Automatic annotation (TrEMBL):
Positions of the UniProt region annotated as Disordered: 454-476
Organism per entry: Gadus morhua (Atlantic cod)
Cellular component annotations (GO), alphabetically ordered: nucleus
UniProt main location, coarse: nucleus
InterPro entries assigned: HATC_C_dom (IPR008906), RNaseH-like_sf (IPR012337), Znf_BED (IPR003656), ZnF_BED_domain_contain (IPR052035)
Domain HAT C-terminal dimerisation: 500-579
Record protein name field: Zinc finger BED domain-containing protein 1-like
Pfam families named among the record's database cross-references: Dimer_Tnp_hAT (PF05699), zf-BED (PF02892)
SUPFAM superfamilies: Hermes dimerisation domain (SSF140996), Ribonuclease H-like (SSF53098)
Length: 582
C-alpha cells in the first residue's frame, strides 16, 4: 500500500491533491478531491475547486477518521457557506439603517468585533460586513426613499407650521435646522425635520429670511406655511417681518429669560453663588463625590450626584437646588469631616434655596409641557401662563426677597408676552375643546375672539348661485327654488354665527383628553371650524423640536467626525429623526 504523501493544492490543503501519473510523477494539470475522488482540471486557479468544496462538502468537519497518511490532517474551510444574495443585501440594508437611526459612525463596519457578532448571528454562514462606501450609498438611497414619504405627507397637508434655529458645530460650521408640523386628515399631529442646512452667510435678517424661503420652496410648501417659530433674537424677529408667514416666538425661551432676569434682581444671588461652589466642590473631585455617596448610603438616601446649573440649559437651576435640598444632611455630614475653604449656607440661606425650588418648579413644569411636539402645545400657552401668574401672586407670608422675585417675574413675563403673537394664541385656545370657555382671558377679550372666528368662517362660506338646473330631480328643483325665494344674504350672515354657537354649546373636555381625538369625532358636525383647527393647533409653542435636532447633530458631528460633508450631516440628522418616528 502506497503511504507516500501526495502534494496538496495550496489554499485547499487536505481537500484536494494533484493527480499521480503511473510512473509516480505528479500531474500538475489535474487535481482530485480527496473527499469524493472527483477529478478536475487545474490551471493555477482554485475557484472551481472552492465552489465544489462549498457545494458538496460544506458540512464535512475534521475528525480522527479524516486523518491522512503521513500525518496530513483534513481540515474544514474557515469561511463556511456564503449567505444568499437576498439575505446578504437585507443585512447590509439593516446595518445602514441602524447606523443612520442611532447616529453610529460609518467606520463601525470596519470593527472586528462587529464582524464577529455578525458571523455568530449568521449561524456559521460567511458574511462580510459592507465597506464604508457601500454604507454611504445605502444611506443616500434610504434618505431619498424616506424624503419621498415626507414629501407625499406634505403634499396632502392643508397647512404647515415651521420652526427654525441656527447651530454651530464643533468644527465651527453654521447650520440652519428647520422642522415641519401639520395635522393630517385623520387628525394625527406629524412633526419631522426638513433640513439641517449649512449656511455660509452672516445671520443678518435678510439672509435668514431667504434661507427659510429656500427651504419652503425646496419642499414645495411655500403656499401652505402658516407660522414660523424662532427664538426672540433680534435678527430672527427682523427676518420674520420680511416673510409673509405669521411669527411665533418661542414661549419656552421667553419663560426662561424671565426667570433669569428675576433671579438677578432678587435676594437669591448670594445663596445661589454659594450653592454653585458647594456643587463644584463635589463635581470636581472624585474623592469628595465618593465620600458624599458614602454619607448618602449611611443615611438611607439614594446615591445621586449633585447637579451644576448652566446658564444656557433650561431648568438647570431648579435641578441644582432640588438636589441640594434632598441631600442637605449628607452634604453637611460630608463637609464636617473635611478640611475645606467653602463658605457654607446659613440656615436662612437654606430656607431661601427651599423657597426658590417652590418658585421654579411650576416654571419647569410649564417649560416641559410647552416643549412637546407629539401633542398640541400652542393652545396650552395662554392657560399655562395664566397658571404661572396665579402661582406668582404675592401673599402675606412671603418674605421681601420672594416678593421682589414674583413682582419682577410677572412684570417681565407680561412685557415679553405682549410682543408674542397673542392673536394666534387666542384663536388656538378657542379651537381647543379643553379651553374653549376662554376663562384664561379677560371677559372683555372673549367675545372678540369669537367674532374673529366668525369672520373667518364667513370668508370660507361660498356664495350660493341663483342658477338652477333644468334636468335636476323635482325635490332638488324645489329646494333650489326655496333658496332663491329666501333672503340668501341674510342666511350667509347668520350661518357662521350658528356654527360658532353650536361649537360653544359643546361641553369642554377633560384636561387629560386629546383635542385631536375630539375633533376627529366631531369634525363632521363642525366641518368649517375643523379646517381652522387644523391650521391653528398644528403650530408648536416653542422651538424645542429644532433644539432636539441639534442634540442629534451633536452626536453625529463629533471631534473625530468633524470633517463630515454638510450633505452627509443633513442626511444623517434627518434620517435619525425620520426613522425614530417608526
Amino acid at each position: 500500500m502506497d503511504t507516500e504523501p501526495k502534494e496538496v493544492v495550496g489554499p485547499l490543503d487536505g481537500k484536494c491533491e494533484f493527480k499521480k501519473n503511473k510512473d509516480g510523477t505528479l500531474n500538475k494539470q489535474a487535481v482530485i478531491c480527496t473527499l469524493c475522488k472527483k477529478e478536475f482540471s487545474f490551471h493555477r486557479s482554485t475557484s472551481s475547486l472552492k465552489y465544489h468544496i462549498n457545494a458538496k462538502h460544506a458540512f464535512v468537519g475534521s475528525s480522527s477518521s479524516g486523518a491522512r497518511p503521513g500525518g496530513l490532517v483534513q481540515t474544514t474551510l474557515t469561511e463556511g457557506r456564503a449567505l444568499s444574495k437576498s439575505i446578504s443585501e437585507n443585512l447590509t440594508q439593516k446595518i445602514a439603517k441602524w447606523i443612520a437611526k442611532d447616529c453610529r459612525p460609518i467606520n463601525i463596519v470596519e470593527d472586528k468585533g462587529l464582524a464577529e457578532v455578525l458571523q455568530v448571528a449568521s449561524r456559521d454562514a460567511f458574511y462580510k460586513p459592507p465597506s464604508r462606501g457601500t454604507v454611504m450609498t445605502k444611506i443616500h438611497d434610504l434618505y431619498k426613499t424616506e424624503k419621498k414619504k415626507k414629501e407625499e405627507d406634505l403634499a396632502v397637508a392643508d397647512y404647515v407650521a415651521l420652526t427654525g434655529d441656527h447651530w454651530t458645530s464643533v468644527s465651527n460650521n453654521n447650520y440652519l435646522g428647520v422642522t415641519a408640523h401639520h395635522i393630517t386628515k385623520t387628525w394625527e399631529l406629524k412633526s419631522f425635520a426638513l433640513t439641517t442646512m449649512k449656511t455660509e452667510e452672516r445671520h443678518f435678517a435678510e439672509a435668514c429670511a431667504e434661507q427659510f424661503l429656500t427651504v419652503a420652496r425646496k419642499w414645495e410648501i411655500e403656499g401652505k406655511v402658516t407660522t414660523i417659530g424662532t427664538d426672540s433674537a433680534r435678527n430672527m424677529i427682523a427676518a420674520a417681518r420680511l416673510l409673509t408667514f405669521e411669527h411665533m416666538p418661542c414661549i419656552a425661551h421667553i419663560l426662561q429669560r424671565s426667570i433669569t432676569v428675576s433671579l438677578s434682581d432678587s435676594g437669591f444671588v448670594h445663596a445661589l453663588s454659594k450653592s454653585r461652589k458647594i456643587v463644584g466642590h463635589f463635581k470636581h473631585s472624585p474623592a469628595n463625590t465618593a465620600e458624599l455617596q458614602a454619607q448618602q448610603a449611611a443615611l438611607g438616601q439614594k446615591q445621586e450626584p449633585l447637579v451644576q446649573d448652566v446658564p444656557t440649559r433650561w431648568n438647570s437651576t431648579v435641578d441644582m437646588v432640588k438636589r441640594l435640598n434632598r441631600n442637605q444632611a449628607a452634604i453637611k455630614a460630608t463637609l464636617d469631616q473635611q478640611q475645606h475653604k467653602l463658605i457654607m449656607l446659613t440656615p436662612p440661606e437654606w430656607d431661601k434655596v427651599q423657597r426658590l425650588e417652590t418658585l421654579l418648579e411650576p416654571c419647569r413644569y410649564v417649560t416641559e409641557i410647552l416643549g412637546g411636539e407629539a401633542y398640541v402645545s400652542c393652545s396650552v400657552v395662554l392657560p399655562a401662563l395664566c397658571h404661572l401668574r396665579r402661582v406668582m401672586e404675592v401673599s402675606d407670608e412671603d418674605p421681601a426677597y420672594v416678593v421682589r422675585f414674583k413682582t419682577a417675574f410677572k412684570e417681565d413675563l407680561a412685557s415679553r408676552q405682549e410682543k408674542s403673537n397673542n392673536a394666534w394664541l387666542k384663536l388656538a385656545t378657542a379651537l381647543d375643546p379643553r379651553f374653549k370657555d376662554l376663562k384664561t382671558l379677560p371677559k372683555s377679550e372673549r367675545e372678540e375672539v369669537w367674532t374673529t372666528l366668525g369672520g373667518m368662517l364667513h370668508e370660507q362660506s361660498p356664495r350660493r348661485s341663483p342658477q338652477t338646473s333644468e334636468d335636476g330631480p323635482p325635490k332638488k328643483k324645489m329646494s333650489l327654488l326655496l333658496q332663491m325665494c329666501s333672503d340668501s344674504d341674510s342666511d350667509e350672515e347668520v350661518q357662521p354665527g350658528r356654527d360658532i354657537h353650536r361649537y360653544r354649546a359643546e361641553p369642554c373636555i377633560s384636561m387629560e383628553d386629546c383635542p385631536l381625538q375630539w375633533w376627529s369625532a366631531h369634525s363632521g358636525a363642525h366641518d368649517k371650524l375643523a379646517l381652522l383647527a387644523r391650521k391653528y393647533l398644528a403650530t408648536p409653542a416653542s422651538t424645542v423640536p429644532c433644539e432636539r435636532l441639534f442634540s442629534v447633530a451633536g452626536h453625529i458631528v463629533q471631534k473625530k467626525r468633524s470633517a463630515l460633508l454638510s450633505e452627509n450631516v443633513n442626511q444623517l440628522v434627518c434620517l435619525s429623526n425620520w426613522l425614530k418616528e417608526e
